[in-house]
Amino acid sequence: MTIARVRPAIFFSLLALLVAGALIVPHVANRGVVFLSGVVAINVVFGIAFNLAFAKAGILSFGNAMFFAVGAYCAGYLITQQNHLPFVVILLAAAGCGGLLALVTGLLALRRASGVYFAVITLAVGALVHVLIMKLNFLGRNDGLVGVNRPIIDLGLVELDLARGDAYYYFIIASCALLVTLMWVLWSNRFGRSLQGVKSDPMRASFLGIDIDRKRLIALVLSGSITALAGAIYAPWAQIVTPELAHWSFSTMPLLFTLLGGSAFFLGPAVGAILFGLLDYATRSLIGISDLLVGGLLLAVVLSVPGGVLGLLGSLLARVRAPSSPRREGRA
Amino acid sequence: MLEVSHLDAFYGQSHILHAIDLRLAAGESVALLGRNGAGKSTFLKTLLNAGPRGSGQIALDGRPLSTEATHVRARRGLALVPEDRRIFPKLTVAQNIEMGCHAAADGKACYSLDEIIALLPMVGPLVDRLGYQLSGGQQQMVAIARGIVSRPKVLMLDEPAEGLAPVIVDELGDAINRIRRSEGMAMIITEQNLDFARETSDRLYLLDVGEVVFCGSWADFDDRPDLVDRYLAL
């Protein structure tokens, strides 16, 4: 797998297109679609954060649900029990908890294992976190945390009531766009290129003075923090946080988004998350066979298009261009 | 500057290098000669702790290196340009060169791209190309640029002329000598091309089956024509 380069102009154009599309949704769709659209935006961050570690640093984690759940529970607990805290502080606390969990997981596993062995360790740590959540009284055990209200952000002169109308939806779109931009910077800058070096040729990278263990750990911590932030944004949107968020099956979601959209592309998981959301919505009324249909369709796409939907589009575009123009350098 | 004493190296149970001693002064260039399998590349990799298991003493500017990890040795001033160049194919030439700056972690300023191009003019027109779009000679120049960008104390070149066209070998020799003269960088160059090695080094070590069988000046080497027949002829 080779990593596609993302030119700034193309990235910001596509991001603007996605944000514009998301902002239209409340004006043209019902409440259910608006809710689903908010979840898709959060899933976009969830997927890209996973792929930042996976495609760039070669870290395959089957435990990303635990970072999401830790963020969601952290925000849920602080909103329900410490509601005097500013929401920004709650978000930072959630990111810190996710980062800390990723740091512990990384210190425990990254030096000892790589590839699928590392993935199995993250699966085990994720299962442990899931069990812990279900055993802790202050996290609501099996019931989870309910009544996670949408917050009011005090900006000094103005109070932003995110509980009113679609305010929290717009907050989700804005914060997810910011997080996606932050991850694009990490993906494209010197740090991202050093991760790419670590993944493609670790020995060469260490010849060049790169501490490969440290870089991989930083990538995992960043991925964990951003995933936890996505979880923290999700909690007031759903207004409930349950242990299912930490279940191993939820960890397959970002992997699915990534494979569906194309792991070599920065926006691959975003495309995967959107397509998955559409599929999920289109099959919602087929009670009993909805999951089977979605799973079967996804399996077909992943097996028949190993580079994901963007990989397929890229090769079709290359075929169209091939007879008339010379080969272009790189991809967007 | 670089002192290597009684260096042994092993791949698993195989004993590859036997008690190698080598001294390199600041700004000096030495050639490491020997047939395929003599242990030249293994020696360079062992200096960087990059593959073989080594034992013995390695010190750079009097500070021991033997227990340090590969990236720490690189940051202390050892740079290796490996035989297969290992250019990152999906990074541009400028980004490939920038990757070498990670070795300059101790506050030393890296060369700017303009300074690199002044030392290696062949790199100039290539900066925006991707790694996979380079010829063998261009890859070699970029690999050297990436090796020197952090201003290492010792630049190690593993068979730099191998597989290159004669005209490119000439350009490469000029570039290496330009770096030696203007930057005073010490070098270890492994080679099978005797003319190239002679042109780019001050003296030589001759390796055979993991042991140093000769070390001295080129004049001393020329006085011993038997060495070529015994240790270098096919």
Summarize the structure.
The complex is a heterodimer of chains A (332) and B (234). Chain A has 332 residues and is mainly alpha-helical.
Distance between the termini of chain A: 15 Å
Spatial order of strands in the largest sheet of chain B: 6-7-8-3-9-10
CATH architecture of chain B: 3-Layer(aba) Sandwich
Q: Main β-sheet of chain B, in a few words?
A: 6 strands, mixed
| Fraction of residues in H or I helices of chain B | 25-40%
The CATH first-level class of chain B comes to Alpha Beta
Report the strand count of chain A: 4
The end-to-end span of chain B amounts to 34 Å
Unreliable stretches of chain A (pLDDT < 50, length at least 5) are: 327-332
Instruction: Give the percentage of residues in beta strands of chain A.
Output: under 5%
Separate helix tally of chain A: 13
Order of helices and strands of chain A: HHHHHEEEHHHHEHHHH
Please identify the structural class of chain B as seen in this structure.
Answer: alpha/beta
Q: How confident overall, as mean pLDDT of chain A?
A: 88
Class derived from helix and strand content of chain A:
mainly alpha
Q: How many structural domains does the protein architecture of chain A include?
A: 1
Tally the structural domains of chain B: 1
What is the 3D shape of chain B?
globular
DSSP strand count of chain B: 10
